[in-house]
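re: ur question from yesterday

yeah so i grabbed the chain u mentioned. its 431 aa long if i counted rite. heres the sequnce exactly as i have it in my notes:
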Amino acid sequence: MPEQSRQSGKKRMSKAQRRRLKRQKRIIAVVLAVLAALLVAAIAWMLLAGLQPKNDSIASGEPAIPVETAAPTATSAPTVEPTPTAEPTPTPAPEPVYITLTAVGDCTLGGNTNSGGEGEERFAACFEKYGADYFLQNVRALFESDDVTVANLEGPLTTATEKRSNRQFNFRGDPEYVNILAGSSVEVCNLANNHAYDFKTAGFDETAQTLADAGIGACGFGLEHYMEIKGCTVGFLGFTEWDYEEDDLLRDVRTAREKCDLLIVCIHWGEELTYKQTKNVDKLGRAIVDAGADLVIGGHSHVYGEIEQYQGKYIIYSLGNFCFGGNKKPTDPQCIIFQQRFRVWPDGSIADAGINLIPAQVSTSTKSNDYQPIFLEGDEAAELLAKVAKVSNLTEESTIWMPESYVVQNEIVTADAKIGPTVDAGSDASL
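ran it thru and got these C-alpha cells back, copy pasting raw so excuse formatting
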C-alpha cells in the first residue's frame, strides 16, 4: 500500500511539471522570437543606415543624392581664405642714358707736299717703320673707353696728284693712314677745313670714301653723319667760317636738329696762332648753339683756345694740334683733349653730366715731332690748364666735372666741387 501511494504521487507531480514546463517553453519561445525580430530589425536598420545618404530624400520620396557628390553641410564646410588682391606693378620711372664724347684737334696724317716732299716722306717713313698702331698708342685706351671720338682731319688721304696752286701748304697722306684712326677707336672726322681740298675735289672725294670704307663717319662740305648710340641718334655737322653765309650755316644746323637727339657741330674759324678768338667768332659760336647745337668744336688756330659755356652748352674755340704731320716742330706742341658726358632723357631733353679737360702734347719730344701724342702730367699739366682757364669763361656756378676727369683724379679739384682752386700761372684764373 505505501508503495502504491508513492507511485501515484509521483505521477500527479509529473503532470503538473509538464504543464508548467510547457508554459515556460512557450514564454521562452515568444521572448526569443521577439528578440530575434528585434535583432533582425536592428541589423536591417544598420545596414540601411550605412548604404543610404544622410538627407531627407528617403523620407520625402525624392531621389537620393549620391554620397560622392553630396554637398557638405554648413557645419562641415572648410573655411576658404579670401584671395588677396594683387598689387599693381608700378610703372618704372624713365631712365636717361649717358653718352661720353671725346674731341681732339687737328690731325694731319701725312705732310706738306710743298717742302720737296720732306714732310710727307718723313711721316711715311715713320709709318713704314712702326706701323699704324704706333701713332695713337698713348691715347688709345682713352678713345676706347668713350662712346664716340671725333677728330679734325686736316688734309686729305688720297693718291691724287693735282693740287691747288699758290699755297704754302698742300697736305696729303696715303689712304692707308686711315688705319691710324680706325685702329684707335676714332669714329668721326670733320673734313670742313682749309686743307680739305688741297688736292681738289678728287682728293676730297677719295678721302670721304676711304673713311667710309674704314667705318669712320665724315662731316663737312655737304656731308652729314648720323649714328646710333645707346638708342640715341647723334648727328655731326662740319663748316668753315669763310665758306658759308651765316644764315645758310644756321639753317643747316636747325634742319639737322630735327634729325637727331644730340647734335655736334665742328667748325673751322678765327685766326691761326691766336689763343683768344675775336668777337665775331664768339658771336657765331653762340648763334650755332641758339640754332640747336649741343656742343660746338672749333679749330684752325693750331693752338689751344678758349672754352665757353653758353646757355648750358659748351663752345670749344680750339683744341690745338694733335697727331700733326704738318711740320717737324709745331710752334706750340701743347694741346687739350676735351670730353663731355651728356645725359639724354627719353623725351629727348639733354643735360650736361660733366666735362673733362686733359692736358696733352702732340709729341713725346718737344725737340722733334714724332707724331705720337701723350698726356701731360705734374707741373706742365697744371700750367696748361691754368693757361686755358685764363682765356676761358668757365665759372664756379656752372662748370661740372666728370668724376674721372683729370682735374678730379689729380686732386686739382675735389670730387664734390664744380670748380676748383686757383692754379697759379701768372693769372687769377681757376680750374
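noticed a couple things. The chain has ten helices and 16 strands. also The longest strand covers residues 97-108.
anyway ttyl
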